[in-house]
Amino acid sequence: MAAAPAQIQIRYIQEEDRILMRINTVASEEFRFWLTRRFLMRLWPVLQDALMSSPAVKQHSDYSSRQAIVAFEHERAQSKAAFNNPFRDADHLPLGTNPLLVVKAGFRHKENGALQIAFKDNHDKGVDLNLSNELLHLLCKLLDDAAQQSDWKMTALLPNITETASPVAAHQLN
Which residues of 10-27 are buried (b: 16+ CB within 10 A; e: fewer)? Predict the structure, then answer.
């Protein structure tokens, strides 16, 4: 099942020692996932590679230029996001009300430069998310913020990107 995100909320839940990711789609469906530290540690390098593989970044051969383009894309994506809009609860939850515990993810680059990420549980139940480069940057920002709020002592997902925007208070995007 493929979905186009309309709104994403990502929060660290201390009692569960997990990250709760909720995604509303343009089709008014909501998907809920638990992300563990172990899973996020495996996801980090893949997301970093995905950020470095945008068409604008791949045009440059030297690493510092590629990093500068990623930083520019990251800042531009954040400037367009509506982080403070409240997350809307959806009536239709195709995977149920309880969040799925994500244990694997698949990635596929689309022809238009978008990235498709498949989040699955042990029974291959899950969803494929179609993310534009902009949405990928915002997803990374939200995941990074949630991980940094935990006591997981993870390195920043975007360690070489200097943030010029103020920290995000609400961990959601539209």
Answer: bbbeeeeebbbbbbbbee
